[in-house]
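Morning run. Coffee first, then this:
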Amino acid sequence: MSTVDPRARMALMQMLFGFMGAQVINVTARLGIADALGNGARTTDELAAGTKTHAPSLHRLLRALACLGVVAEVEPRRFELTALGQPLRADAPNSMRWLAMLFCDDPVWRSWGHLEDSVRTGEVSWDKVVGTSPFEYFKTHPEQSATFNAAMAEDARNTAPMVLAAYDFASVGTLVDVGGGSGTLLATILAATPKLRGIVFDTPAGMDRAAETLARVGVADRARAVAGDFFQSVPEGGDAYILKSVIHDWDDARSRTILQSCRRAMGAGGKLLLVEPLLPPKVESPAITGMVMSDLNMLVVAGGRERTEVEFRALLESAGFVLTSISAPLAPTTYRLIEGCPA
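And here it is:
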């Protein structure tokens, strides 16, 4: 047997320790440490008092954060936030605080612990460990639902400028945001497109902050929030229907049902706009790691999947659409804007 390269062993070791780093970030987000460091360096004791934690144990967490580059130990037991740690602040323009808490939340964490079961069976681990599907779970767990909604709003806020740059919404009369949650994406698009009107459509739990968002952004006079079930129907009369990070939540059969609801609701000249990652036909670069991990997350958590261009074309055709264009990546994200029209 040939000798194993020590560098390969070390690289694998770092991967094995990856779950530890994820929890360090999760706990940091939950304790609000980045927010506490927002105005400058603080000592371990000061941070412990502000976060109501055990100072010696918090110091151990802070050392781990320093090794990860999230904070810097500027003096013994005195820490400041780094550029890497800035997105963990709740008030950061590019905040990822809620996203960090979502992906390490207890049901997601336990579902990933059963990845082997999902790979062996193709079944969703979340349903087994929690006892119900994610969206049914959120109906009865308001705190977790709020975390999910806030994380989706963060992602929509960070992605909206790239969506605006990739598509001319001035040609659209009414835009329906299907699965639009807090209304963050729609509100941003409306604010940049003065003549556009819009509808946020989601479940009651998913859109509980939508009206507030539309009012805060100053577009409530051109938009409304409508509750419903996209497996049954979506609001009629839209010129374009946009779905961000919706289709990847579902398998092909359920995705087809959602898209068919959109097809029935729109006229012959309507447009379908999907904001989703696009997997390449094969792995040629580690740059797609995020998409691949998201694909596995859909396997264990929701039963959905990320898709290739071929798979998107087939899915849209099965729902009565023709895929007409795919944008370049909405950098710095891996999202694409996928446009379809009625067949």
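The beta strands are 42-43, 71-75, 78-81, 174-178, 197-202, 223-227, 240-244, 271-277, 321-326, 335-342. Good start to the day.
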